[in-house]
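Fill in residues.
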């Protein structure tokens, strides 16, 4: 796939501590190693502000259906059929090394992958739920594989976790009783502990499901305690929950476009209330869906469309997160590979789009 300018940068001499870790810091924080020793949280924020570009992966049971990542809700997909999908989930061509190498070639500094989606299926070895990739036909811990390769190559690994939906445990998507809400909170906290203890450095936890939490009642789930748990377990790990539900998130994240200042409060959230916090915009190469959608074959965004959005995002001082949907067997989509490599080549020649010299 060829080396990108950032990959060359990572090749410079590294000082190792007695444990063989570069300056005692996660490898993705190479440039912030000194600050990490003094203040891990600030080091994580500084890194994120300078990262600019990330690669998002969307993959799960819904990929086997090939319609939309929310097919279980939109169809709706029968429960008795959906829970049988792990038997077909082989991940035969999922290759963490190939994915990370593509991210590097594209110029991305971090990778975002789902740890647990709203259908309840986990892409890691959760001891709190047997609805996971290790218990599937694949018998593989995909988060573990990605964590190992990302740490080796100095790429930040960010994990997405569905907090606003839970179709596996609750038919309505969320618990309906206070006592169920308390159990759900404990369950989420338990899974966060698994993710932050089992897999080494995690650059960020990106929660999703904000609209459902708002409808359900934002005080029903103690989000701040979950944020605090993340920071206690890994001080450098950033927390995001869309455009913010409390305002105490480390950075804010939006989909498709950055809302203007005059947008409704539910669209812009805390984005303009605290301009000191980083902002991230995610754009999907598959229009209308983050997950694999067979009907979109041949209709993915082209390099120029992506570059224009990248330029607009960069000019607004926000990070650009580009999403690719993995194929049902876990392999990268050839359409997206070509686009991502073209973006990397252009970054190599021109630098970040819209940059003022």
């Amino acid at each position: 796939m060829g080396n990108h300018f950032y990959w060359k940068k990572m090749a410079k001499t590294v000082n190792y501590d007695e444990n063989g870790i570069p300056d005692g810091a996660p490898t993705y924080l190479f440039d912030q190693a000194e600050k990490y020793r003094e203040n891990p949280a600030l080091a994580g924020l500084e890194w994120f502000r300078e990262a600019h570009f990330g690669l998002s992966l969307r993959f799960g049971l819904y990929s086997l259906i090939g319609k939309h990542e929310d097919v279980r809700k939109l169809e709706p997909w029968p429960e008795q059929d959906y829970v049988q999908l792990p038997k077909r989930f082989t991940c035969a061509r999922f290759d963490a090394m190939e994915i990370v190498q593509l991210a590097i070639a594209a110029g991305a500094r971090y990778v975002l992958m789902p740890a647990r989606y709203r259908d309840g299926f986990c892409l890691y070895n959760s001891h709190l739920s047997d609805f996971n990739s290790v218990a599937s036909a694949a018998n593989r811990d995909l988060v573990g594989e990605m964590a190992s390769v990302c740490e080796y190559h100095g790429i930040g690994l960010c994990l997405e976790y569905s907090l606003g939906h839970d179709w596996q445990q609750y038919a309505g998507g969320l618990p309906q009783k206070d006592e169920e809400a308390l159990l759900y909170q404990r369950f989420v906290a338990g899974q966060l502990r698994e993710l932050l203890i089992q897999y080494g450095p995690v650059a960020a936890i990106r929660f999703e499901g904000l609209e459902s939490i708002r409808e359900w009642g934002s005080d029903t789930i103690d989000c701040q305690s979950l944020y605090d748990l993340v920071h206690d377990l890994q001080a450098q790990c950033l927390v995001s929950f869309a455009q913010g539900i409390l305002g105490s998130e480390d950075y804010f994240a939006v989909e498709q476009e950055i809302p203007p200042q005059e947008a409704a409060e539910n669209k812009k959230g805390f984005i303009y209330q605290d301009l000191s916090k980083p902002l991230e915009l995610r754009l999907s190469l598959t229009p209308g869906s983050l997950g694999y959608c067979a009907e979109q074959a041949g209709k993915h965004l082209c390099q120029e469309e992506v570059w224009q959005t990248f330029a607009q995002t960069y000019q607004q001082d926000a990070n650009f997160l580009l999403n690719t949907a993995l194929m049902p067997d876990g392999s990268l989509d050839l359409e997206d590979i070509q686009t991502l490599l073209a973006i990397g080549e252009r970054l190599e020649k021109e630098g970040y789009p819209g940059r003022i010299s």
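The mean pLDDT is 89.
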